[in-house]
Design goal:
Layout: E1 2-9, H1 13-18, E2 24-25, H2 27-40, H3 46-62, E3 66-73, H4 79-97, E4 101-106, H5 109-112, H6 115-119, E5 124-129, H7 138-150, H8 152-176, H9 178-197, H10 200-217, H11 221-244, H12 255-286, H13 293-319, E6 327-328, E7 331-333, E8 336-338, E9 341-342, H14 345-409
Parallel strand pairs: 1-3, 1-4, 4-5
Antiparallel strand pairs: 2-3, 6-9, 7-8
C-alpha cells in the first residue's frame, strides 16, 4: 500500500523564495528544500509545513508502510491558474506512483481550499493542519505588526480609511458640530464596509471587463443596452413629472405618489428591458452556439410583468380618482352594434392580467417551438454525419463480398 504525503502550497511561496519548480518529490529532495526555504525566510510557516510532511512520512515508514512525500505548489498569476497547476501536478504524481491514499499537509486556510482537488483524485485519509506556536509577548506583537504593515493590500484596506477618518473628522466637527461629524464618518464607514462586504469592486471590474469584450467583439447588445439606459432615464423622468402633476391633497402621503410614479414610468421601463433583452437575443442568434430557451422567453416575460404592474397601479389610481376611467366608444359595424360604456376598475385590471397571462403563455409556446426545432436540426445533423461515416464501411463490405465471390471462379 503506497501513501502519498503531499504538502500543498497554493500561492507558490516555496518556489518564489527558492526558485525551484514543483512538484518536489522524495525524502532527500524535500529535506533539502526545508534548508533552502529556511535560509531564504526563517519566519515562513512553510518550513514547519515541510517538516511536518517529513515527520508524517517517517511515522508511516516506521509502521512498514510505503510512502511518497511530495511538495505541490500553484502559481502566482491567479487563483484559477494556481488550482489548475496543483490539479495537474497531483495527476502526474498519481499516474507515476499510483498511491492508494493520501495525507494532506497544509498550514493556512488558503491552502485548505486545495483539499477538494486532491480528494477528487485520490482517497484522502487525513488532513494535517500545521499551527505554529508563538510566544505571546511584546516582541511577537511587534513582529506581527511589522508583517501587517508590510502587506500592501491590508494597508490599503485598513490604514487608508482610518487615516482619512482621522483627517476628515476634525474638519467636520469644526464646521458642522461633533454629532454631525460623527454621523457623517459613521455613514461613510458603513458604506465602505458594505462596499467591501458585497464585493462591489469585483462586480464593477467584471462589468467593465464584459463591456470591453462586448465592444471588441462587436455585439449588438452594446447598442441596445445604451438605448435601454436612455429609455430608463426617460421613464424615470416621466414618472417624476407625473408625481409633480398631483394636487397637494394627493401628495400628502407616500402611497399615491409612488403608485403614480410606477404607473407613468412602467411603459418606458418595460420598453427599456424589452430593448435590452432583444439585443441579447440577437447576439444569441448571430452566435454559433445553440439558441437557449430562456433568451426566447425573456421578452414576453418582460412585457407581461409591465402589463401586470400597469394594471394594478391603474386600479389603485382610478379608485382614488387620480386618473380617468377607460371609456369604450360606440361600435357601429354591421351586424355588430355596441353603445359606448365605461370599464369598471376591476374589469380594467382583469383585462391587463388576462393579457399578461396570455402573452406569457405565447412566450412559453414560442420558446418551446424554437427549442424543439433546434434540437431536431441537431439530431438531423448528427444522424447525417453517422450515415456518412457508415456508408464507406457498408460499401467496403459489399466489395469484399464481391471479391470473395470471384475467387472460387478464378
Amino acid at each position: 500500500m503506497t501513501t502519498l504525503v503531499v504538502c500543498l502550497d497554493r500561492t507558490d511561496d516555496v518556489g518564489r523564495k527558492t526558485g525551484l519548480r514543483s512538484p518536489v518529490v522524495g525524502w532527500e529532495a524535500v529535506r533539502a528544500l526545508v534548508t533552502d526555504v529556511g535560509l531564504a525566510d526563517p519566519e515562513d510557516s512553510s518550513v514547519n509545513s515541510l517538516l511536518e510532511a517529513l515527520r508524517v512520512a517517517q511515522s508511516l515508514r516506521d509502521d512498514d508502510e510505503e510512502t511518497v512525500v511530495a511538495v505541490v505548489s500553484g502559481d502566482r498569476e491567479s487563483m484559477v491558474s494556481a488550482d489548475r497547476a496543483v490539479a495537474r501536478q497531483i495527476d502526474d504524481l498519481i499516474a507515476e506512483y499510483e498511491p492508494e491514499s493520501a495525507v494532506v499537509v497544509i498550514d493556512s486556510a488558503e491552502d485548505e481550499r486545495l483539499v477538494p482537488i486532491v480528494e477528487s483524485r485520490v482517497r484522502v485519509d487525513s488532513v494535517d493542519r500545521v499551527v505554529v506556536r508563538q510566544a505571546r509577548d511584546i516582541e511577537s506583537t511587534y513582529y506581527l505588526l511589522k508583517q501587517f504593515l508590510a502587506d500592501e493590500e491590508l494597508r490599503q484596506t485598513i490604514l487608508v480609511p482610518l487615516g482619512l477618518t482621522l483627517l476628515v473628522f476634525p474638519v467636520l466637527a469644526m464646521q458642522f458640530g461633533t454629532a454631525e461629524g460623527a454621523a457623517t464618518i459613521t455613514t461613510v464607514i458603513g458604506l465602505f464596509l458594505l462596499y467591501k462586504g458585497f464585493s462591489v469592486d469585483e462586480l464593477l471590474t467584471g462589468l467593465a471587463r464584459r463591456t470591453r469584450e462586448s465592444l471588441y467583439t462587436g455585439q449588438v447588445s452594446v447598442v441596445t443596452y445604451v438605448v435601454a439606459a436612455g429609455l430608463t432615464f426617460v421613464g424615470l423622468f416621466v414618472g417624476a413629472l407625473g408625481v409633480s402633476g398631483l394636487s397637494e391633497a394627493q401628495t400628502e402621503g407616500v402611497v399615491i405618489p409612488a403608485v403614480k410614479f410606477a404607473f407613468d414610468s412602467v411603459p418606458w421601463l418595460a420598453m427599456a428591458a424589452l430593448t435590452a433583452s432583444a439585443g441579447r437575443l440577437l447576439d444569441e442568434l448571430i452566435g454559433e452556439e445553440p439558441l437557449r430557451r430562456s433568451y426566447l422567453n425573456l421578452p414576453f416575460v418582460v412585457v407581461s410583468i409591465g402589463l401586470v404592474v400597469r394594471g394594478f397601479t391603474a386600479y389603485f389610481l382610478e379608485a382614488q380618482n387620480v386618473i380617468e376611467p377607460v371609456v369604450v366608444p360606440d361600435i357601429r359595424l354591421a351586424p355588430l352594434s355596441v353603445d359606448s360604456f365605461t370599464l369598471a376598475p376591476g374589469n380594467r385590471l382583469g383585462l391587463y392580467v388576462a393579457a399578461a397571462v396570455l402573452l406569457s403563455l405565447v412566450g412559453v409556446r414560442v420558446a418551446s417551438y424554437f427549442a424543439g426545432a433546434t434540437a431536431d436540426e441537431e439530431g438531423i445533423s448528427d444522424g447525417g454525419s453517422e450515415t456518412e461515416l457508415a456508408s464507406p464501411d457498408s460499401s467496403g463490405s459489399e466489395s469484399e463480398v464481391t471479391d470473395g465471390g470471384r475467387e472460387p471462379g478464378n
